[in-house]
Amino acid sequence: MASQRIISYNVNGIRAAMKKGLVEWLQAKDFDIVCFQELKANADQIDVEAFTEMGYHCYWHSAEKKGYSGVAILSKVEPKKITYGMGNSKYDSEGRVLIAEYKKYSLISTYFPSGTSGEIRQKFKYEFLDDVFDYLEELKVKNKKIVLCGDLNIAHHPIDIHNPVSNKKSSGFLPEEREWLTKFYESGYIDTFRHFHDAPHNYSWWSYRANARANNKGWRIDYFAATKNLSKNLVDADIFPEAKHSDHCPIYLELDI
């Protein structure tokens, strides 16, 4: 049986991350599949050769708006099929969902909307949560084994955020958002990091303010979720806070496929 090593990484602008040593970090790690979120660039603005030279097939789903959102999947194994978006132009124009179908499972790289800029985007986020849930339920019928990864912009439990009390009214830790994540996992998914690790103080995003990263005052808002029928295939999951090309850090999943 072969093992597949996958990372998911909100790079907060891929061009900026590449200037901070992202390519060299990936060369040293040699992952099988890399999922990016928040590209903030179109494919023609990226040095794609840096990734193809490492043996990756590259699939980019950028937002229509310049310098905004966007997701990607880089894969050394060529997928059977790639689907750009979820068939809803409201979200697909923002480059939020990209699906690679492999022989044994389907992989989704996703970037959920943030509601931090105010009520309009918070409402948009709730609409997305409703619509993506329905979409994933339909997808599960066709593609029975699914791994969903990316920046979901929600910290699930108090253990997933450095200060749950003072953030209880903050977007990303609102009761309705957390309830959605509970509903999502109860619909048949495993939080793969928590499957292996129950320790606190494990985060994937830190504010640029108040020296938050140096003090590890973060949020765990990036996830690998696997359908329960993949539980026997889970080998390991981890978070790599030492990688500093973004305000997020990469998260990791190893699958025995």
Just name the CATH architecture: 4-Layer Sandwich
Distance between termini?
6 Å
Instruction: Please give the order of strands in the largest beta sheet.
Output: 3-4-2-1-14-13
- The named CATH superfamily: Endonuclease/exonuclease/phosphatase
Arithmetic mean pLDDT: 97
Q: How many domains make up the coordinates? A: 1
| Alpha-beta content class | alpha+beta
- Say what oligomer this is: single chain
- What is the fold named in CATH at topology level? Deoxyribonuclease I, Chain A
Low-confidence stretches: none
CATH top level assignment: Alpha Beta
Describe this structure in words.
The protein has 257 residues and is of the alpha+beta class. The protein has a single domain, classed as Deoxyribonuclease I, Chain A, CATH 3.60.10. It has helices spanning 14-19, 22-29, 49-52, 89-92, 119-142, 175-186, 192-196; strands spanning 3-10, 33-37, 57-61, 71-75, 81-84, 97-101, 106-111, 146-151, 189-191, 205-206, 218-219, 222-227, 234-239, 251-256. The strands form 3 sheets. It has a 6-stranded mixed sheet with strand order 3-4-2-1-14-13. The protein has a 6-stranded mixed sheet with strand order 5-6-7-8-12-9. A two-stranded antiparallel ribbon has the order 10-11. Strand 6 and strand 7 (106-111) form a beta hairpin. The longest helix is centred in the middle third of the chain and has 24 residues, at 119-142. The protein starts with a strand and ends with a strand. The mean pLDDT is 97.
